[in-house]
Amino acid sequence: MQNDNPGGLKKWLVAARPFALPASVMPVIFGAVLAAVIGKAEFHWIYFILSLVGMAILHTGGNLLNDVFDYKKGIDQQVNPVSGAVVRGWISTTQALGAGLFLLLTGSLIGLYLFTVIGSAILWIGIFGITIGIIYTWGPLPLKFNALGDLAVFFNFGVLGALGSWTVQTGQPSWTPVIWSIPMSILVTAILHSNNWRDISNDANSGIKTMASILGDQRSETYFTFLLLSPFAVILAIIAVTHIWNLDHRMPYTFLITLLAVPVATKLIGKGKRRATAENPLDFLALDGATAQFNTIFGLLCVAALGLNYLIA
């Protein structure tokens, strides 16, 4: 444990983990642009900014609570290069808990304001998301410790983000953002899995069940490969189904631009395969960070696909 407290802004930036925010805000961006381009909704900039800020605040608050409960349970004892302010001794669990609860309250207040102008649909989406965030590491059956963490981030940092953002712009929920955000939701799950895959031994010793610890090392590699490649298959399937069935909201062929990210996915899969023989051990230790970067690239390509469709339609 490190006690060399730097003070000031740095320790709180480490605690907040801003590098992780693209995983949660990208679906919000995607959902809003999707509503404008495909849903033909008038774009409300103020509501979009509030949605983006609210999601970032809730994500950060959830991260702080996660750090507190992990540390108290004796799970989080190792210092990572860009996170772990509690483990380092830079902030106390009391400080992290207080900051986390404050951020969750602030994010909830933003959600309540949007409820007053949008309606009850956004309220129920928000309640569902916040509930998942709270019971992720807290309560009698924490999702994270009972192999349900993958499902939790799939919804909170994927489907619900896009659905909520669409609803804020259109005033009505729809299955379109739910289905179209599945590829991004899968990749967010891949970020968590790559982290849990690395920590299989530590989690097992702590009595924690994750998908990685249940699958074991070799099958976790197969699962990781599936999580990285299946989003491309889902994109192709959505394009095919929405056009063949002539649905009201057809996924544009511009989404084929996402295939440009296939080489990045295969590179990450290779790093996972070479985990025991890699010249640079950080290739596997930092696989979660590299997967997060891939998720951002994929999300930006999805937004770009919508932009291209708007320009050429």
Low-confidence stretches: none
Rounded average pLDDT: 91
Strand content: under 5%
**Mind telling me the C-alpha Rg?**
20 Å
In CATH terms, what is the architecture? Orthogonal Bundle
Main beta sheet, described? none
Structural class: mainly alpha
What is the rounded distance between the termini? 57 Å
CATH topology: Farnesyl Diphosphate Synthase
Top-tier CATH class: Mainly Alpha
Total domains, how many? Answer: 1
Please bin the fraction of helical residues.
Answer: over 70%
DSSP helix count? 13
Shape: globular
Describe the structure.
The protein is mostly helical. The chain has a single domain, classed as Farnesyl Diphosphate Synthase. It is built from 13 helices and no strands. It has helices at residues 8-16, 22-37, 45-72, 93-118, 120-135, 149-170, 175-180, 182-198, 200-205, 211-244, 262-273, 282-285, 287-312. The longest helix has 34 residues, at 211-244. The radius of gyration is 20 Å and the shape is globular.
What's the layout of helices and strands?
Elements: H1 8-16, H2 22-37, H3 45-72, H4 93-118, H5 120-135, H6 149-170, H7 175-180, H8 182-198, H9 200-205, H10 211-244, H11 262-273, H12 282-285, H13 287-312
Helix pairs in contact: 2-3, 2-6, 2-13, 3-4, 3-6, 4-5, 5-6, 6-8, 8-10, 8-13, 10-11, 11-13
